[in-house]
């Protein structure tokens, strides 16, 4: 059995993926181009600066001499406007019951997110008390699909990688879990998540055993 569960934040516990999409699109539109929801899949689980590089590539603006730090800050400010309106109702269906059941079974839990805003989102939604460890975008250097974030989470929980189960909505996150030697549950649609050990639509569809 698994001793530890590691949860991605965005797309697994809360639906901030749509906020990221809206904010990146707003930036792209301001720069004079657009990108699709399908392209947006590639931004999931990827760090802010790497997401910016991807967006600029779509707009063929890599060589435009833009102030990237400034653009990333702008996108983040728009994103935070949406996050500020979040509350406990924005926790995805089945999440609280699942986290409580995990605790009741003695399973240790960690957050393993690429986001630098993870703690703010946990606070706003009332999820902060449910995790024994929080490893976020401020604590890691290498972005998913690199396994750093999940290996750090396992270490913080005192669990071996093969005793950890990761819950992820992004292909980059599933790849990171596999690279860490962990099992992975994909959250979303099966066709979009390759190499996951199991794929479900959401945590509401899962029971601990
Ligand atoms: P921030 P996760 C990731 O969160 C998002 O999926 C990804 O779209 C975002 O670019 C990344 O966090 C960085 O977020 O700009 O808030 O630091 O899915 O790893 O929880
Ligand atoms: Mg995610």
Automatic annotation (TrEMBL):
Binds 2 magnesium ions per subunit. It comes from the Bacteria. Keywords: Carbohydrate metabolism, Isomerase, Magnesium, Metal-binding, Phosphoprotein. The active site is at residues 8, 10. GO terms for molecular function: beta-phosphoglucomutase activity; magnesium ion binding. Its EC number is 5.4.2.6. One of its GO terms (biological process) is carbohydrate metabolic process. The record marks 113, 144 as: Important for catalytic activity and assists the phosphoryl transfer reaction to Asp8 by balancing charge and orienting the reacting groups. Pfam families: Hydrolase (PF00702). It catalyses: beta-D-glucose 1-phosphate = beta-D-glucose 6-phosphate. The keyword Cell membrane does not apply. Substrate binds at residues 8-10, 24, 43-48, 51, 75, 113-117, 144. Its cofactor is Mg(2+). It is an enzyme of class 5 (isomerase). This is Beta-phosphoglucomutase. It comes from Parapedobacter luteus.
């Amino acid at each position: 059995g698994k001793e530890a569960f590691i949860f991605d934040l965005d797309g697994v516990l809360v639906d901030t993926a749509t906020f990221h999409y809206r904010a990146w699109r707003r930036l792209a539109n301001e720069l004079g181009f657009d990108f699709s929801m399908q392209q947006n899949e590639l931004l999931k689980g990827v760090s802010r600066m790497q997401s910016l590089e991807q967006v600029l590539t779509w707009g063929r603006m890599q060589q435009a001499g833009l102030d990237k730090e400034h653009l990333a800050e702008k996108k983040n400010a728009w994103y935070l406007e949406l996050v500020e309106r979040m509350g406990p109702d924005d926790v995805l269906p089945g999440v609280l019951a699942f986290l409580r059941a995990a605790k009741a079974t003695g399973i240790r839990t960690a957050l393993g997110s690429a986001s630098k805003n993870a703690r703010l989102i946990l606070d706003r939604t009332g999820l902060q008390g449910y995790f024994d460890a929080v490893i976020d975008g401020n604590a890691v250097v290498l972005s998913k699909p690199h396994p750093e974030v999940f290996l750090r989470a396992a270490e913080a929980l005192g669990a071996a990688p093969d005793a950890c189960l990761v819950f992820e909505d992004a292909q980059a996150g599933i790849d990171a879990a596999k690279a860490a030697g962990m099992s992975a549950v994909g959250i979303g649609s099966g066709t979009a998540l390759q190499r996951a050990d199991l794929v479900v639509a959401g945590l509401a569809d899962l029971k601990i055993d």
